[in-house]
Amino acid sequence: MSFGNLNIIDPLCRALAKEGYTAPTPIQTLAIPHLLNGKDLMGIAQTGTGKTAAFVLPILQKISEERKAARPGVPRALVIAPTRELAAQIDQSFATYGQFLRFRHTAIFGGVRQGPQVKMLSSGVDVLVATPGRLLDLMNQGYIMLKGVEFFVLDEIDRMLDMGFIKDMRRIVAALPQKHQSLFFSATVTQETGQFAEKLLTDPVHIEATPQASTLECIKQSVFFVDQDNKFLLLQKLIRDEDMQRVLIFSKTKHRADKIAESLSKSRINADAIHGNKSQNQRTKAMHDFKSGRLRVLVATDIAARGIDVDDISHVINYDLPSEPECYVHRIGRTGRAGADGKAYSFCAADERNILRRIERLTRSRAEVMGHQYHSEAAKIATGAAAEPANSYRSRTAARGSRQDSYRKSAPRKPYPVRRC
Ligand code: AMP
Fold it and tell me: What is the CA radius of gyration of the chain?
């Protein structure tokens, strides 16, 4: 099966070839023909299945087949995602897959000034990716009208329901025109997501996809509970003691990535860092050295790591856990490729304990807890606000009891039957 067999147009096929995609993933093979035919879709798919391209490609194709001038604040495609990270990532996918097409796209989310977003909207937009709160804000201020929406995507419905966005989503749906194509995605199947989708979808196709085996099954996942101050000592010891051939380390900031690489180099472990503040030349050199084996350790931030395409990474080390659980799946998927065994080590300090719990829920697996000389029992047993990063929204709401928590308590998840295609 190729993308051409799925009737994907040439400019999209060229972009996919440039990204190194040789064949569609199962969810893409199943979903794309229905979406090109105008069907509604309920997709049960986690990150790692290729679900983003499964909706981005047909939307771009349909938009470019019926060209219309982009109108200020009146998108033709609207994609809703629960978090700003995911919204930004989806917007980036539109840019990547649509690099040989002419269309206008933007992402809007809270936590940043609205001015630049309003400016982008007013210069015309075909595709809008948004988080619910900022979308409603800008709709209320008259900057966005949904009357022109032809394609409506809700990504990660289960998480949006968990986060208490149900009223926001109903308000958004109420502003859509009668005639549009709806594409819903959820990582898990629950009664709530089923009931929600049933009311809004018309005769939908149901598709269920599991992540590629290599994402989780070939990877040995281990967790090391450790205090922040001891993380570097632990890292140094592991790299020295174990036979680590090619190691990719993830850190949460660019500054930390530099510090880790510098400290490793000082202790004679060949390391470099790549992140957004490095020039393209520096990045290319680091990648080249890592691929050729001259560099044993590469330290990266999540964004910079997107361009890393190296097959035989023996170890991925999460020096800091990612703030979004999906990101964990992306990170560890860098090892264990092409049937090889990979190892993923995660360092978990007390303030990362809850994110580890969320990762375990998403992956439905538990990493093996490793004993070591820097073990922190406090990190292992941390709960409540102590288990959240200081100053995070979650730590603040955990301290005072949030709307999300009360919603969760009142609506326990039940399995919901879904037909497989
Ligand atoms: P997603 O599940 O949409 O988050 O995608 C997971 C990862 O798979 C992303 O890094 C995509 O770039 C990549 N991907 C998506 N489709 C394909 C494909 N057909 N071949 C190879 N990689 C893909």
Answer: 22
Structural domains of the chain sorted by starting position, each given as residue range(s) with its CATH number in brackets: 4-208 (3.40.50.300), 219-389 (3.40.50.300)
User: Measured between alpha carbons, how far is 227 from 241 in angstroms, rounded to an integer?
Assistant: 20
**Arithmetic mean of pLDDT, 259-274:** 94
Is 132 close to ligand 1, i.e. is its CB under 6 Å away?
Answer: no
Distance 3 CA to ligand 1 centre (A): 13
Q: How close is the Cα of 361 to the center of ligand 1, in Å?
A: 21
Distance CA 91, CA 210 (A): 23
Q: Are 295 and 270 in contact (CB under 8 A)?
A: yes
Match 């860098």 to its residue by tokens.
334
Summarised one tens digit per residue, pLDDT across range 321-346 is 998 887 787 788 778 765 567 899 99
Residue 211 Cβ contacting ligand 1 at under 6 Å: no
**Ligand 1 atom nearest 23 alpha carbon:** 19
Residue 405 has pLDDT above 50, yes or no: no
Q: What is the DSSP letter of 189?
A: -
**CA nearest 357: which of 335, 334, 387?**
387
Q: Is 181 in the pocket of ligand 1 (CB under 6 A)?
A: no
Q: What is the pLDDT of residue 384?
A: 86
Is the Cβ atom of 47 under 6 angstroms away from ligand 1? yes
Q: Which atom of ligand 1 is nearest to the CA of 45?
A: 2
Q: How far is the CA of 354 from the centre of ligand 1 (A)?
A: 27
